[in-house]
Amino acid sequence: MNRPTQRKIINGVMLSLTGVCAMVTVSILFSILGYLVWQGATSVSWSFFTQLPSPVGETGGGMGNAIVGSGRLLLLAALTGVPIGFLGGVYLAESGDKGFPFLIRYAADVLNGVPSIVIGIFIYALFVRPMHRFSAIAGGIALGVMLIPIILRSTEEFLRSVPDSLREGALALGASKWRMVATVVVPTAMRGIVTGILISLARVAGETAPLLFTAFNNRFWSTGWDQPTSSLPVMIYTYAVSPYEDWHRQAWAAGLVLLTLVLVINVTVRMVLSRNAPAQKG
Amino acid sequence: MSVRSSIKTPGEGLQPVRPARRRGPRISGGLAHLLTLTAACTVLVIVGLLIYELYANSALSRSKFGWNFLVTQTWDPVFEEFGALPFVYGTLVTSALALLIAVPLGVGAAIFLAEMAPPRISGALTFSVELLAAVPSVIYGLLGIFTVVPFLREVVQPFLRETLGFLPFFQGPIYGVGLLAGGVVLAIMIVPFIISISREMLLAVPGDQREAALALGATRWEATWQVVVPYARAGILGSIFLALARALGETMAVTMVIGNDPKISASLFAPGYTIAAVIANEFTEATDDLYLHALVELGLVLLVLTIVLNGLARLLIWTTIGRRTEHAG
Amino acid sequence: MKLPFRRTDIGSRLGTGILAVSLLLIVVGIGAGFAAQAPLMLNGAGATFPYPIYSKWFDEYHKLHPNIQINYQSIGSGGGIRQLAEGTVDFGASDGPMTDAQLAQAKVKPLHFPTVLGADVAIYNIPGVTAELKFTPEALAGIFLGKITKWNDPALAKANPGVNLPAKDVVVIHRSDGSGTTYIWTDYLSKVSPEWQSRVGRNTSVNWPVGLGGKGNEGVSGLVRQTPNSIGYVELTYAIQTRLAYGLVRNSSGNFVKADLAGVTAAAASAAQAIPDDFRVSITNPSGKDAYPIASFTWLLIPAKIQDAAKRKALVDFLGWMLSEGQKYAQPLSYAPLPKEVIAKETKAIQRVQ
């Protein structure tokens, strides 16, 4: 076999191999989804969404309190994380690259890399111990702290992608710098910023580790913000490692609900993003 | 009122156009600046507090064990001997295994998506890969317990023992759960990150590099493998470090399949323990202060590891993007 | 110069819209949060050993008193002791009584109140073996020390003539979390095996010589169920509820006893007469020909001083109910009710909660 043919063969083989790699990865996604649907679909019922768990060892019951609990935790997380992340992102986008802004960016990167279990330790020491209780507040703040660096970065990126011509136009008309930012730059990038926020919310919706010793868990409907609360990811974990068949069934159903929620948000916002005008592309 | 642009417009000389009505919130310049600055400072404060809390709450353990903590093998709550080595070992082994599986798969897929695939297929596949990155960790754990572990126990591990059993990695009793299961589940979790970042790094390579190679008669594969990939090498390496940092901190999926045994064993079939997993399992129950402080110190070790790795990764990624702007045009 | 007013329109409208909806949700959420504060919620955490009966009790009690919700999380006895000592929960639960050192260190000093009697059983999953295995104390110690590694080891075969034990590796499964069930198990092993006593000791969390770790009784039964040729230890109820096989254990009189109500009650018989005032006692490896050797009381840890009057009343009332009505639920769930002498003494002791 002469050299050119050999090279052509290698070319063909390697190209196919890379294609195989891509196919393998994508098929994993579809298998995950398919398996979850297969296992969980039959268990997702009205009672699943509305009932409380039944006593240990008894079949039946649902995860109503976990679903509501996850919702409340996300609400609290958004309340703490979104303002700080958004405003911080605005600050960074309108600042230079050296000195103080560089420090902020580095700190945000560090925070982004902190393992979620360590965030759990942090909030336990900061809130749970002094408050002498596990609470939805602690859980929500833990998730909020995880939101901050993600939202900060994505907000900054979308703001930076706003063309300078818009900025200069506003300044030329006599707006002060921050008025320019507030009334021209931010609204222009708003769609991208909102999608960034939604994606990050979807991300923390599935976090379990930081909730283990902050929001803890609750058998009942949580009665206030200062009480422990159940949540979908924690319930999935608890039920999955148990020996009860019925609990396994419910874990699959909960997994399906959680994954559907996360994927729907991700798919929707990405599609919305990709339809943006080129000026707003992030 | 400074007029930045020097371009003459038809309306020049008339009154500046005022907006017909105010849009958006009425925020004065000073207030806006203050708000954003406060938010930025809050980020700093949070990070500072976090490091402080970790440091302060590991004081007992740090003073008692010192640097020996990192190399002690025992984890004995009864006799109060605590050492990080089994957990560091488990963390590193599962992560290394995950990289071993995920890097070839991920870089291969990234090459396909960036270089080979037609744009529509590439777009759709990239979309799917990014969705994979959004799947929560506990769901990987759920799938790990009920699909990966039995598969490993019934099919893969016996096969490995038969064919490669002479290696110390594939000896010993087969449980299903263990270091191998942890590594496999982690690999599935970090592959999407490697793919999406590597793909962007490859796309950042200037077109003229590719074209030059092709013009010289290289096949598409040769152009990719010998020109484009080396150019993006730093960035790809950066993506690997980022994936590694993510793998190190992964808690739920790992603790559900790793066997939770703080022992050091050469065999991949053996159960192990990672830093994140032991904290998740034992934190609420550390019955005395020294025990708790030892766990927090483990958290500190993990944090330092991830910070270092993340820093390296960013450096490598900036290098690639920096080179691109150098050669732009 | 044309300003992009239309984009600003959409942008700020979207932004304002989202802001408004969020504020609304917050208000609704806060309102709901406070409105729903009518029920009194007590939070407890601890042992997984009695979790089946505690969850039944708290459920039934809630039906009788709808305005009282007792939220109990089974995180292991170690967790119960720790979180109570830190004051993050209103009460704890443990099957390993707190040591003097732990009591001294605790910020919140608890009183121990026995609730039921239970037993640790050795569950196993050996494909092909359906017979009930008999375990000697030496066999159990040997397995958990890692010295007996195959199921067909002579130590096991001798006690089980006629059973076809396979030549497979024994997979040991223990607790990965701080556990009273572990305390009971290691307490027993320390009493019957000097090597165990010196090498490992008794505690809620020990340095296991071999084995995989599962979280909670639930985790251990789950792992045993899924892992062929495994052996673990769990509370009796878990073995029954998950239909896992469990073996007989030889007691100090030489009889192989299966864990059941009779055996557990017999184990508590001698201790019941002379139970100390603080109710902390170990009944593993007792005398008595019918006694099951690995049984134990399990305790609720109630703070000696409770500031909140409503919570104090709720807990005291619950304890009273538990000692009278609650004992009925023990037997159907395979726990043994408390001996009469203990109930009498405890009813008086409830007054000690200030």
CATH fold naming of the largest domain in chain A: MetI-like fold
Largest interface, per-chain counts?
A-B, 99 and 95 residues
Q: Quote the distance from N terminus to C terminus of chain C.
A: 77 Å
Averaging pLDDT over every residue of chain C, what do you get? 86
Provide the helix percentage of chain C. 40-55%
Which architecture of the largest domain in chain A does the CATH hierarchy give at level 2?
Answer: Orthogonal Bundle
Look at the structure and give the mean pLDDT of chain A.
87
> How would you spell out the order of helices and strands of chain C?
HEHEHEHEEHHEHHEHEHEEEHEHH
Q: Biggest sheet of chain A: strands, sense, closure?
A: none
Distance between the termini of chain A: 49 Å
Query: How many DSSP H or I helices of chain A?
Result: 11
Please state the CA-atom Rg of chain C, rounded to the nearest Å. 25 Å
CATH superfamily (homologous) name of the largest domain in chain A: MetI-like
Number of extended strands of chain A = 0
Number of helical elements of chain C: 13
Helical residues, percent of chain A: over 70%
Tell me the Rg of chain A in angstroms: 23 Å
Order of helices and strands of chain A: HHHHHHHHHHH
Description:
The complex is a heterotrimer of chains A (282), B (329) and C (354). With 282 residues, chain A is an all-alpha fold. Chain A contains 11 helices and no strands. Chain A folds into 2 domains: 3-42; 44-52 and 61-281, MetI-like (MetI-like fold, Orthogonal Bundle), CATH 1.10.3720.10. Chain B has one domain: MetI-like (MetI-like fold), CATH 1.10.3720. Chain B is built from 12 helices and 2 strands. In chain B, α4 (119-134) crosses α6 (179-203), α6 packs antiparallel against α9 and α9 packs antiparallel against α12 (289-327). The radius of gyration of chain B is 26 Å and the shape is globular. Chain C is built from 13 helices and 12 strands. In chain C, strands 1, 2, 3, 4, 6, 7, 8, 9 and 12 form a 9-stranded mixed sheet that branches. In chain C, strands 5-10-11 form a 3-stranded mixed sheet. Chain C starts with a helix and ends in a 5-residue tail after the last helix. In chain C, 53% of the residues are buried. Chains in contact: A-B, A-C, B-C. The interface between A and B is large, with 99 and 95 residues.
